[in-house]
Amino acid sequence: MYLHHLAYYLPTQVVTNQHFTTLNGLSHEWIMERTGIRERRKAGPGENTNTMAIEATRRTLAEAPAFPAEQIDLIVGATYTPHDTIVTLAHAVQHAVDVADIPVVSISSACSSLLNAVEIVEGYFAMGKATRALVVVSEHNTAYNNEEDTMAGHLWGDGAAALLISKERLHENDLRIVDVKTGGAATMGKATVSVTLKPIERGLIMPHGRDVFTHACQYMARVTREIMERNQLTVADIRYLIPHQANQRITNNVLQNLELPEECAVSNIERLGNTGCAGAAIGLADTLPQLQPGHRVVVTVFGGGYSFGAMLLER
Questions:
Q1: Ranges for the Beta-ketoacyl-[acyl-carrier-protein] synthase III N-terminal domain (predicted)?
Q2: Domain that holds residue 306
Q3: How would residue 201 be classed by pLDDT, with cut points 50, 70 and 90?
Q4: Does residue 202 register a pLDDT over 80?
Q5: What is the model's pTM?
Q6: 99 with 196, same domain?
């Protein structure tokens, strides 16, 4: 299957580290040293997970005339920060694009949901139940975040991205989705308690950040190596690595583990913070203009729970 196009939406409000210095005394230098985050985006009044998803979808469709909305026959939405758990972001997007009577699915597997959504598309395509799919990932982290939490309150940002995926190639510049591999590691470490968001408590907390860091580094490197090996590739064959955008130190650790040069990594952490399952998609969208024929890209992700995955793409 093929990734035809993707685009994203970011709220206009920028929250710098100075905000947290004023709020709880965390200095810009302290935050930068530990996370690599300089600023992040925050949804404004009237914005939420669904509205951001709709705007990302509109932008993507506007930039892809070969993939008109009326040809969409599957919508898969992903988020762990829902605005509405019944009228999900996928339903909101379906209403906005006005395509009736097609499969509409919303999933949540924390920050790795992007790749699980792509796998769902893969399954529908394989069963002959769809041929043109829209995947939408959106996070409204600031709706649940406690900014006064000195352990994790400064990490989160908001944003959304939309991907158009087809069973057949639509344009010579389409990226072939060569392989997708995902898994769950809920039996490892402090997986079920390290990061939690209980909507009834409106709390996004990370009491065991060190455990998250350790397993994120291990699993993103491992699954990247596995997907390369089963496609007979080495690190020399990979042009870009797009990791989950959680922490610059995690990205650096994964690069070192894989023995990849620093210039291979795509990062938007510094300007966006952790945008959840939208982060890697935003990074991929920004990388598209640099891709040349023969370039291979690996997207590797890790989320609370612990969930993980990797996707291999080729131009």
A1: 107-182
A2: 175-314
A3: confident
A4: no
A5: 0.96
A6: no
